Every structure is written in C-alpha cells, then in structure tokens.
Amino acid sequence: MKKLSARRRHPLAALVVLLFALAATGGLYAAFAPAKPAQAEGAATALSDIEEGKKLYLSGCSSCHGLNGQGSSDGPSLVGVGAAAVDFQVMTGRMPMQQQGPQAPRKPVVFTQEQSDQLGAFIASLGAGPAVPREEDYALEEGNNAMIAEGGELFRTNCSQCHNFAGEGGALPDGKFAPSLVDVDPKHIYEAMLTGPQNMPSFPDTIMPPEQKKAIVTYITGVTKDEPNPGGLGLGRLGPVSEGLFVWIFGLGFLIAAAIWIAARTPKARTK
Amino acid sequence: MSNAHSNKATGPIPDNAATKTADYFDERLGIYGAAKKNLRKVFPDHWSFMLGEVALYSFIIILLTGVWLTLFFKPSMTEVVYDGSYVPLQGIHMSEAYASTLDISFDIRGGLAIRQIHHWAALIFVSSLFVHMFRIFFTGAFRKPREMNWLFGFLLLVLAMVNGFTGYSLPDDLLSGTGLRIAEGVVLAIPLVGTYLQFFLFGGEFPGTDIVPRLFTIHVLLVPAIMVGLLTVHLILVFYHKHTQFPGAGRTEKNVVGLPLLPVYTAKAGGFFFIVFGITAALGGLVQINPIWSYGPYHPGQITAGSQPDWYIGFLEGSLRIMPNWETNLWGHTISWNVLIPSLVVPGVMFTFIAAYPWLEAWVTGDKREHHLLDRPRNVPVRTGLGAAWIAMYLVLWIGGGNDIIATHFHLSINSITWTMRVLFFVAPVLAFVVARRIAMALQRRDKDKVLHGRETGIIKKLPHGEFIEVHEPLDAERLHFLTSHEQPTPAALPPAVDENGVARKLKPGEKLRVRLSRWYFDEKVEKPTAEEYKEITSGHGHH
Ligand code: HEM
C-alpha cells in the first residue's frame, strides 16, 4: 500500500492511470459487447478483430503512429510491419511508448494477448508483414542436441556481438543497448528476429530460414538461460570485467586483510 | 638443520640418524655455515612487506597448476569435431587447443578446478605485483642501493602481463581470438615494419595455425623461465641488501630490527603461503572464471559484446577505446594514430616512467647516499602525488576499458562515458596529484601538532574559572622520534651566475631543469618542530 501511494506522485502515474482506464474500457467493451453467434474461424473473426484493433489503436497508438498508421513525427509508420512486430512490441510492454528516450525499453504489459492480437490484425490489414509465429515455430525441442549446437553457432555469428555470449546484453552507441535475453519468452525471441525492433537488424525468413531461428531460440532458452555455471558463481556472466573487479575486492582484499592480521601477531618481546 | 643449531648450545651432539644426514650434507655443501649466516637474518615486520610474498606464493601456485595443465592441453590448431560431454558444442568444428581446454574443463577429473585456480592465481599474481610495487614506490624503497632490484621487479611485472596475455590467448576461444586480433592490429600499426612483423609472428595471415603453438612455447617455457631467473635474482638481492624498515626508535640506516628468519618469520611466511593457497583454491573451486564453453570457439567472423581482456590488460583496451579515430595518410601509407598512440605510446610512456623513476628522483634530489630507512608517504608529498597521479591515469584507462559494461549497468550512454574518460585522462592525474600532495602536507601538519601539543585524549576538563579544555597527553619518546626523524632536504639552488673570478659559469646541461624540479619537490614543506620549539611549548603554559 505504502509503495503504491508513494508511486502515485510519480510523473508517469497519470499516464499509467490513463492507460489502465483505456485498457479497462477496452476490456469492458469486450465483455459487454453483444455476444456474437459462434463463428467459424477465418475471415469473419479477422474482420471483427480488425474492428476492435482499430478502436484500440485509435485510442492508444494513433497519437504517435498517425490515424492510419502512416506515422508521425512521434512514431514510425506501421504500414507493413506486420502482426509479429505488434505482438512483440505490445506484449513485451514496449508499446505504447511512454517516454521519449534513446530506445523504448521493456515495461509492464498493458494489453491482454487478445487485444494485442486485435491490434496486430488491424496493423496487418494496413499492409502485409510477418505474421505472429505459430507455436510449433518456436516450441522447444527438448533433447535435440544437434539443434542446440547449431543454435549456438548461429547465435555467436548473428547475435552475441550485441547481446553478449551468454545473452546478458550489451551497450550500443548513444545510450542504446541490446537488452538481456535471459527472461525473454521464446515467442518474443522469434518475433524479435523476424521484425528487428529498433536498432536490431531483422532476420527475415529469406535470410534466416525458420529452422535456424528455432535453433537459436532453443539455444537461448536452453543454454544461456538455464545452464548452471559449472565453475561456480557466475559473476553475472559478463566476462573478464566482473572477474577483475572480483579479484581486487575479494581476492586481494582478503589477502591484504590476512597480511595485516598476520603482521599484527608479533611476539612483542622480540621486536625491541 | 635446527637440530644441529640448537644442539650446539646444549652440549655434545647425539649421534643419531638426523645428525649423520645433516653432517653428510654439511661436508659436501657446507650447509651449517650457510644456515648459521642466513637463518639468523632478521626481517622487519609490517603488513605491507608481505605484499611481495603474495606475489611469490601466487606465482608458485601458477607454476604448479600450469605444469598440471600442460599434461592435458594440446597447443594445436588442427581442426577437430568436438564429441566431449559438453552438449551445446557437440558436433562443432574447433581447434584442438579449444577442444582440449573443454576436455580439461568437463572430462578430466578436477580439471576445471585446476584451470580456475590457475587463472585466479594469475589475476591475483598481477594485482599483488601492482600493490607490491606501489608499496615500494610510496615508501621510497627503490632508492639506492635498490634501484636495480626495482628494475628487476618492473621487468617481472611486464613479463607477468605478457605471460597472462599469452595464456589468455591459448584456449582459442572467442575472447582469446578477439584479443589476438587486437594484438595483431597493434603490430600492424607499427610504422614501416608492422606488416613484416605481423607475418613473422603469425606465420602468415591472421589467425593462421602457427600462433597458438608459438604462444604456448612463450607461455609455458620462455617467459616463465625468464621470470624464475629474474625472481631468483630479485629475492637474492632482497637478502643481500637486507630488508628496509620504517623509522623508529633503535632503527638506523645500519641495522635491521625485526624477527629472526627462523623460527618466527618462517612460521609466519609458511602460514601465509597456506592462506594465499587457500583463498586461491577457494576462488578456483567456487567462483567461475573464463567460461570458455560459453564464449564458443574462435571464429574470425564472430564476436561478442563484453569482449574484454583480463583486468591487467584492461587499461590497454580502455586506451584503445577512448582514443579518437585519427589517421593520416602519408605517400600512400596510413599511419594509424588511433592504434599507435593508445597501444604503444601511452603505455610506453607510463611504464617507462615507472622503470626510470628511481633514477629520475635521484637525479632531481642529487642524493647519492644509501637509504635503508623508509619514507612515510606523507613526508615526501611530491612523490606521493606523482604516484597518485599515475594510479589515477591508469584507473581512467581501466574504467574506459569497461565502458560498455558501465553503460548497460548504469543506463548511461557509452559515448558520454568515452568523452568523460577522454577529459579525465588529462584532468584526473592533475587532480589526484594536487589532492594527494595536499593530504600529505596536512598529515605532516597534524604530526607536528601532535609532537608539540601531544595526543588528544578525548578527556574534557573544566578549569576553575569555567573554561573547558581537552587534556593533551605528551607523546612518548619513541613516538616523538618516529614523527620527527625524517629528513627535510633543502631544494637545490643554481650557483651564482659568475664564479669567483668573475667569469660566467658554465652550467651542466639540464642543471636549470634539475634545480627547478628540485624546488618543486622540496620548496613547500611543513617545517619539522625544532627541539627549542618543543621545549618552549612543553615546559611553558602547555595547552592552548
Ligand atoms: C611456468 C608457468 C606456467 C605454465 C606452465 C602455464 C601453463 C598454462 C597452460 C598449459 C595453459 C592453457 C590451458 C588452459 O588454460 O586452459 C595456461 C593458461 C593460462 N595461463 Fe598459464 N602457465 C604458466 C604461467 C602463467 C603466468 C605467469 C600467468 C599470468 C601471469 C598465466 C596465466 C594464464 C592464463 C590467464 C591462462 C588462461 C587460460 C584459462 O582460462 O585457463 N600463466 N597456462
């Protein structure tokens, strides 16, 4: 409670409240809207989804991305980015963006999966783009060792230069950064490759076939995320920098303390 | 040996096996004489004198674990397909060097622990060399007659860094290869001969198949052999010169006050060895270092964020990272200032300064006497300031080497960190100098105060007329001596411009500069209290 009341004064509080209100309206609307008769999957669903998506879009996104997704000075055009981009941006909390900064960071998610799908359907209707991957595209294959090894090779070739060898993230110029991949959903990893958010290059299927993407997802989730550190404490898996700090603070720190301790233990009679 | 030693005092030597053995060796090696002379050597006792021991012990640990590693490591670039027990790399093509390091880590009993101990010991070794060196520097222990030993120590430091770098490059993992690639760039940037030198070192284009076996020979044979030799000389010289000591009652330039080598000092040193070994082994067993399996095998087309060298090469990395991208083109040849300056000129100047410092200082002070009593750092403020400035410059470069990690962890822009470090590279040493010198002077002033007015006891007394005073207790003689025994040299002065015959005097070249530097060293000082001052204050009204 205390925490909540303290945060009420946060400059972003108003925005959060607004977003909640928007989300709630969306949810209520969905709940109270005349229930449609059970529909066959396909065009009809898509159509109503597009409708819903458009409404959500107009209230939450159009201020930056323009009324028809054509973009504005505050946000890029969304024509042709596809539902995968929307799912990634919305379901990792990046969109709607709150603050102009070097890069839109991950935040708590404000839309439900359904709303995100509706937004995606709407954006996809503006221009063809990559669709949200299906579960079997990124489902992990436990025990497929060859795939893990291939994924590692691909990861080191395509991703580690920005995201670090263990997926711990890294810095890019001007305050931008490649985030840590440790807690990212397999689906979102796949989508990130598919759509190339912000400063990340995209890896469309023509460049990187779906099999390879799946291998990378498997490697990230199975190895960089879950692997215990065989050598002991991992020190954040940041490489030699954390090792160096550690050796000075703990290694040498202890040794100097030990030296002081030993030197202080002197048979007094003999020193004079 | 101690047997023989103590028996001499108590009476006839019993004719047991130990004595016979000792006698056998004495007749052939003269051990009694040597022992008598050396075991009575006395070592002064101060914690900072044990920093060199940390270096010695960690070096021993490195040698022991290193020899073990050679039993299993294969210094070869032959391509193999990995089929060991680390699943994520199974079926991957890699060099034998990398595969054998994986085997050491995962398939050889105790291998990972030994590798990690070796690596942690290397990090501890180099850090202890630095602090050891700083101790020598700040206390003036490098002065005559120990300048040569300073130089030997300096060479050991450089060789340790070189050997660390070569060791880091051996496993042929992604970070090794990246480091070598940078080293190659540095070699290439050397004007005129760079390209030839690079071909000579690598036996062809980068990376080639020669470099790892060559580095192996350098790492396990060439450099360690030189180091063991230098180390022996270093220690013999310590013995021969006898250890320095801090000033104190009964301590002079001619004696050494401390603990006898046997048994006290040996016991302490032996115990300390086990502490160093224990801490290193604990690190090796509990804390992961250089997880080469996560880095993956080296491939020229791959790289990872967070590619950094071990800490002691970090300052070079930082130097490269913060250098602006300057190049000039001369008659079709590119001179890469962006590599030359940060990787050769800057460290060259910084380390030459260290190597040459004893001679620089001796030249400035004109002091040709021997010194066996140490300076307290506060009593030589300019030297202390210079040391602080050097450390500050080194730290700035070091921090620059981790600019990406700092950027991601503190949400800063890597560009602003780089710019900050560029500015600090010039500003921080000056600031550090000024601050350290000021602090040293202030401490001298406090010492003077203590000498004249005694120690603050914390006891407040109310005088009959209502005034409160704090009771000061005069220092004992030993302490007084300690606080006032240092020398305060007078700065050099230029001789009169004309000699007694009215002929213009010829100055030795550089004499003017020397006098100016000498003033800078010694002009500003906190005059030591004189005996008269002391008497006047302590006999008179006392406290104020
Ligand atoms: C006679 C002395 C030495 C021997 C025989 C030796 C032997 C070895 C061998 C065989 C390796 C490769 C295997 C492996 O790491 O995984 C290695 C690696 C290494 N050595 Fe040494 N070494 C010696 C001295 C040193 C010194 C003086 C330093 C540093 C000051 C050092 C630092 C390293 C480092 C940093 C590695 C990196 C590899 C790792 O992560 O394990 N070594 N050494």
Largest sheet of chain B: 2 strands, antiparallel
Q: What topology, given as strand order, has the largest sheet of chain B? A: 1-4
Radius of gyration of chain A: 25 Å
Overall structural class of chain A, as computed from helix and strand content, comes to: mainly alpha
What's the overall geometry of chain A?
elongated
Strand order, main sheet of chain A: write it out.
1-2
Instruction: State the fourth-level CATH superfamily of the largest domain in chain A.
Output: Cytochrome c-like domain
Written as H for each helix and E for each strand, in order along the chain, the element string of chain A is HHHHHHHHHEEHHHH
The number of domains of chain A = 4
**What does the radius of gyration of chain B come to?**
29 Å
Q: Give the end-to-end Cα distance of chain A, rounded to a whole number of Å.
A: 66 Å
According to DSSP, the number of beta strands of chain A is 2
| Measured distance between first and last alpha carbons of chain B | 61 Å
> If you consult CATH, what is the topology of the largest domain in chain A?
Cytochrome Bc1 Complex, Chain D, domain 2
Would you kindly provide a written description of the structure presented here, covering whatever features stand out?
The complex is a heterodimer of chains A (about 270) and B (about 550). With about 270 residues, chain A is mainly alpha-helical. Chain A has 13 helices and 2 strands; from the N terminus they run αααααααααββαααα. Helices cover about 55% and strands about 0% of the residues of chain A. Chain A starts with a helix and ends with a helix. By secondary structure, chain B is mostly helical. Chain B has 20 helices and 8 strands. Chain B starts with a helix and ends in a 5-residue tail after the last helix. Mean pLDDT of chain B is about 90; it is low at about 1-10. The chains are: A mainly alpha (about 270), B mainly alpha (about 550). At the A-B interface, α8, α9, β1, β2 and α11 of A face α4, α6, β4, α11 and α12 of B. Protoporphyrin IX containing FE binds next to α4, α5, α6, α7 and α10 of chain B. Protoporphyrin IX containing FE binds near residues 66, 70 and 164 of chain B. Chain A: This is Cytochrome bc1 complex cytochrome c subunit. Chain A: Its EC number is 7.1.1.8. Chain A: The cytochrome bc1 complex is composed of a cytochrome b (QcrB), the Rieske iron-sulfur protein (QcrA) and a diheme cytochrome c (QcrC) subunit.
